[in-house]
Design a protein that fits this description.
- The termini are far apart.
- Strands 1-19-18-17-16-15-14 form a seven-stranded antiparallel β-sheet, with no helix packed on it. The protein has a four-stranded antiparallel β-sheet with strand order 2-3-4-5, with no helix packed on it.
- About 4% of the residues have low confidence.
- With 325 residues, the protein is mainly beta.
C-alpha cells in the first residue's frame, strides 16, 4: 500500500509535469515579433557589394545561429560574380559576429547561387550551385557542399558533388524554393514555388508516404490559402506545428506574412502574422531543438526587406511562438 504522503507527492509531481507540457492550440499559439535586426544592407557603399540576396538561417543544438546570403558583387541579377556571406551568433541572435566569406567565385560570368543550410549532428552544411544559368560561358553546372565543424564560425573548402548528383543543372534551393519537410504523421511534404501561376497564384504541395521515394502526380495539389507571387518561401515544422512564410500577395513581393497550421499544412489558422507590410522577398526559417515542452519557444525568420525594393537588406526577425517576451 502506497503511503498517503508519497501518493500525494506523486500526484503533485504528475500535475506539475502536465502543466509544464505546452499544448499548441489557437489560444496558446500567438506569434509575436520580439526582436528584429538588419544583418546585411545592399549598396555600393557597403563593402563594395551591390546586393545581398537569398538569405538562409540555421539553429545549432548549442543555441547558436548561422545566417548566410549571397553577396552579389556588381548587380542584383541572378547571374554574375558573387560570394557567400555568413555571420554567426553564439547567443540565439542577441549578438552577431562579423561577416565572413564562406566561398567566392572571383569574377565568374555566372557564379555561385545559394543554396540550402542545414545542421546535421555537430556539423553545419551549406549547399550551393555554380553555372546554374546556361548557356553562360563558365563551364558545366555543378553542385557544391561546404562544411563547418565549429558551428558556422569557419568553413572548409567546397566539395564538388557532381559525381553524386551529375552535371545537369541542379539548384539546391534557393532557400526553400522547393522545400521538403517531414510532417508529424510521417509523410514527406514538398512545398513548391508555382513559377508560372499554373491554375492559381498560390503554392503547390506534393506529398509522399514512402519517405520521398515517390511523389505521385495525384498527390500534387494547390493551396489557394497560400497566395504567392512566385518566390522562395520558408517552411518550418516544430512539434506538431507547421509554419510558412512568404510575401502574401498574388503578384507583388510585399506583405511578408507568417502562417501556421495545426493540421499538417492542410489548413492554415486565421490571417497569420504580418511581419512586414512593405517590399519583401525570399525568406527562410529555423528554430532551436524542441525543449521538454515538445515545441520550440521561438522561431527565427530571415527575409529580404526594403522600403522601395525588397532587395535593399536582409533582416532577421525573432518570433515568440506563444507571444511572450
Amino acid at each position: 500500500m502506497v503511503p498517503a504522503r508519497l501518493l500525494t507527492g506523486l500526484l503533485l509531481a504528475a500535475a506539475a509535469a502536465a502543466a509544464a507540457r505546452w499544448v499548441a492550440t489557437p489560444d496558446t499559439v500567438q506569434p509575436r515579433v520580439v526582436r528584429e535586426q538588419l544583418l546585411w544592407v545592399s549598396g555600393e557603399g557597403h563593402g563594395g557589394v551591390h546586393t545581398f540576396r537569398v538569405p538562409l538561417v540555421a539553429a545549432t543544438r548549442g543555441g547558436a545561429l548561422v545566417a548566410c546570403a549571397e553577396g552579389r558583387k556588381r548587380s542584383a541579377a541572378d547571374v554574375g560574380a558573387k560570394f557567400i556571406a555568413c555571420r554567426h551568433s553564439p547567443d540565439g541572435g542577441a549578438t552577431w559576429g562579423p561577416t565572413r566569406v564562406a566561398a567566392d567565385d572571383g569574377s565568374a560570368a555566372d557564379g555561385l547561387n545559394l543554396g540550402a543550410l542545414a545542421v546535421v549532428g555537430d556539423e553545419v552544411l551549406l549547399l550551393f550551385a555554380r553555372c546554374a544559368h546556361p548557356p553562360k560561358a563558365c563551364g558545366p553546372p555543378s553542385t557544391h557542399l561546404l562544411r563547418s565543424r565549429d558551428g558556422g564560425r569557419s568553413w572548409g573548402p567546397p566539395q564538388n558533388l557532381s559525381g553524386v548528383v551529375g552535371s545537369e543543372v541542379f539548384a539546391p534551393g534557393p532557400g526553400y524554393g522547393i522545400q521538403p519537410y517531414e510532417l508529424p504523421d510521417g509523410s514527406i511534404a514538398v512545398n513548391i514555388r508555382n513559377q508560372n501561376a499554373y491554375r492559381c497564384r498560390c503554392r503547390m504541395v506534393a506529398r509522399s508516404w514512402d519517405g520521398g521515394e515517390t511523389l505521385p502526380p495525384a498527390a500534387v495539389t494547390f493551396d489557394p490559402a497560400l497566395v504567392d507571387p512566385a518566390v522562395a518561401a520558408g517552411v518550418l515544422v516544430t512539434g506538431d506545428l507547421v509554419f510558412f512564410s512568404n510575401p502574401a500577395h498574388e503578384s507583388q513581393r510585399v506583405n511578408l506574412t507568417l502562417r501556421w497550421s495545426f493540421t499538417n499544412g492542410t489548413t492554415w489558422w486565421g490571417r497569420g502574422l504580418r511581419v512586414w507590410a512593405g517590399p519583401s522577398g525570399y525568406s527562410s526559417m529555423a528554430a532551436p531543438p524542441p525543449g521538454a515542452r515538445g515545441h520550440a519557444a521561438v522561431l527565427y525568420l530571415i527575409y529580404e526587406k526594403g522600403r522601395s525594393l525588397s532587395t535593399e537588406s536582409i533582416s532577421l526577425a525573432t518570433i515568440s511562438i506563444a507571444g511572450g517576451p
